[in-house]
Design goal:
single chain; 160 residues; 28% strand; four-stranded mixed sheet; two-stranded antiparallel sheet
Length: 160
């Protein structure tokens, strides 16, 4: 394990924000939680890939988070690197035809924004997820659902 004095150096070339001993209560919807050894907010997918590579090389455990919705963090905090995906939020239509639409959405994109975008474009099928807090990544990880809708029913592919 990398010592906290050296942990920032590991991620120093990453484009994005890097904070040492960052209180997780600042990043959770419940406002509680002790510090993360290092809190990294990569600016883009390339920076995220590099952060993951560097953490693996240095033997630093990684804990990914989105918006921290309903996330409980113990008072002792999180050992290793918390990678916030909040800036990883592309939203684009990849393909649209008679059979449906394919939309790419990043893990850090708010589920509400995704649903609003779909409604603005006249797409249907996920409106039942309206009102569920959080980001796309967490919704997929937990198979968010309500009113007979589940995100898995609209999901075709996940890139990790």
């Amino acid at each position: 394990m990398v010592l906290s004095a050296d942990i920032k150096k590991v991620f120093s070339d990453i484009r994005g924000d890097i904070k040492i001993s960052e209180p997780m209560g600042l990043h959770t919807s419940l406002g509680i939680g002790g510090p993360a050894d290092v809190f990294v907010v990569p600016e883009d997918m390339g920076s995220l890939r590099e952060a993951l590579r560097l953490a693996k090389k240095a033997g630093i455990p990684v804990f990914p988070v989105g918006g921290g919705t309903d996330l409980l963090v113990r008072d002792k905090g999180i050992e290793g690197a918390v990678l916030s995906l909040r800036k990883i939020k592309p939203l684009e239509i990849i393909k649209e035809d008679q059979q449906g639409v394919l939309i790419r959405a990043g893990a850090g994109l708010a589920l509400k924004r995704f649903i609003d975008f779909s409604a603005e474009k006249g797409f249907s099928g996920i409106e039942g997820l309206s009102g569920i807090p959080g980001q796309i990544g967490g919704a997929i990880a937990g198979n968010a659902g309500a009113f007979g809708y589940e995100i898995k029913d609209a999901l075709t592919e996940v890139t990790l």
